[in-house]
Amino acid sequence: MLASLLLAAALAPSADARPDIAAANKILGRGMNLGNALDAPTEGAWGMKIEPEYLKAIKAAGFDSVRVPVKWSAHAAADAPYAIDPDFFRRIDEVLDLAEANRLNVVLDLHHYDGMDEAPDKNLPRLVGLWKQIASRYRGRPASVFFELDNEPHNKLTEAKWNEVIPPVLAEVRKTNPTRPVIVGPAMWNGIGSLRKLKLPDDPNLIVTVHYYSPFEFTHQGAEFAPPKVRDRTGLTWVGNDAQTAALRTDFDAAAQWAKENNRPVYLGEFGSYSKADMDSRGRWTRAVVHEAEARGFSWAYWEFGAGFGAYDRDKKQWRQPLLDALMQK
Asked: For the whole model, what pTM was predicted?
């Protein structure tokens, strides 16, 4: 595909310049998370399965990429060499094939590895072992497939501990994929506020990701999995007044400033609002986030396609138009 050729050219080594990872990040463009499917304990356990028509709909709507969150840890042996289930690997192959057939770039993400968050030292060898298998299996995939090392490190996977984890995991990936773009974000749920504490190896092919769900009381209102004070309150609106817009811009300015200082491109890997918020507010908030992200050169992926935050109504087989218009800036 053209995107793969452009990306391969951008990452090709030269005698006098580092590979242009900013160009690779730009190719990710506008993306959609295929959440609540392969990141569930088993695909379908949370009511969402990835169907071929979903990839077609995403491409037809104008998106450039999909982020595929995967709970690899639920499909691998507990003991070394931590073998990943062959049938599960074949299912991931199918999804990657669907994305390639629809000319969509892919962020292949390691998601919900709870053991790393609860006991990082104990689980680090297994994380390295998982990435050894993933990277080896997909070493021949086109450059349009990006790897993301770990979604939203938190809890005991502190900022300092996460900085220790990144180098050995990345080193394992680089054994088989020396120049493939790899996405990594700060600890504390990939929060912008933790960027200043993120320490990255000297690797030119890294893209930094952040997630954005602020104000949390608005974006997660009524969500069954949210803390009680957020879960039990609904009716909060987002009107885009001066104070709300200023808070958004301040957050994104901080990310952009860090990116400039560290010469790293930014991928806004998740942002979205839960279905209990009113649609007008969801549309306004989404439009504002996309506008501010693109104004700073961030690529992005909305959370998510067809579940609780979904931009697409799977029952009606159609987009929720206010959200799609906001994402596409119509």
From this structure: 0.94
